Amino acid sequence: MTELLVEALRATSRLRRGYVICNEDGSPKTDGQCNKANYAICDRAGLPRRGWHVLRHTFATDAARFAVNPFTLMQWLGHKAMTETLGYVAFARAHARSISPAIHAAGAGETDPDRRVIQMLGARRRGNLTATDGEGVEPRNTKPPETIGLPGASLSEEYGT
Fold first, then answer.
1. Residues 6+ apart with CB under 8 A from 4
2. Exposed, middle or buried: residue 103 (CB in 10 Å: 0-12, 13-18, 19+)?
3. Quick one: how far is CA 83 from the chain centroid?
4. How far apart are CA 70 and CA 132, in angstroms?
5. How many CA atoms are closer than 13 Å to the CA of 78, on its beta-carbon side?
6. Which secondary-structure segment (H or E) carries 97?
7. pLDDT tens by residue, 56-83
8. Which residues pair with 28 in a beta bridge?
């Protein structure tokens, strides 16, 4: 986990069990509720709107690109069949591109392969992308995360979900 994520989790008012993104009663949010929250976060951060499923695909593709074990990726994604997961592996191989030194360095000190990939995934931010990753992509603004209400903010309170 990144330091920002650890801080945000520590700032939450209560410990949650079960679903990561859920309603106050612990029930899972609908796709529409998740997308509404994601869109609001993207809007406030000045980023193009992305729904939760696009973020899931991005996570899985980058994890495959960073050489996570396919069985581990299958578990992380909750896939029942390896064929679902191997699609991400095949896509990552077919669209291979260089990984920036900053991303490699983020995972360099970790001996556990899964934790190494998590460290590398956490290092993905605009300053660490390769030139081809960020071509033509300019944010609408450059507000730091703490100014858009992310750390400690309840999605229910902040975005009305």
1. 145, 151
2. buried
3. 22
4. 25
5. 3
6. none
7. 899 999 999 998 999 999 999 999 999 9
8. 22
Give the integer Cα–Cα distance in Å for 16 and 24.
Answer: 9
pLDDT digits (tens, 9 = 90+) for 5-32: 778 777 776 665 667 677 888 888 898 9
AA letter at 49 = R
For residue 44, the tally of other CB atoms under 10 A from its CB is 18
Query: Tokens 């612990």 label which residue?
Result: 26
**Which tokens belong to 49?**
């709107």
Long-range contacts of 88-95 (CB under 8 A, 24+ apart): 88/57, 88/60, 88/61, 88/63, 88/64, 89/64, 91/61, 91/64, 92/61, 92/62, 92/64, 92/65, 93/64
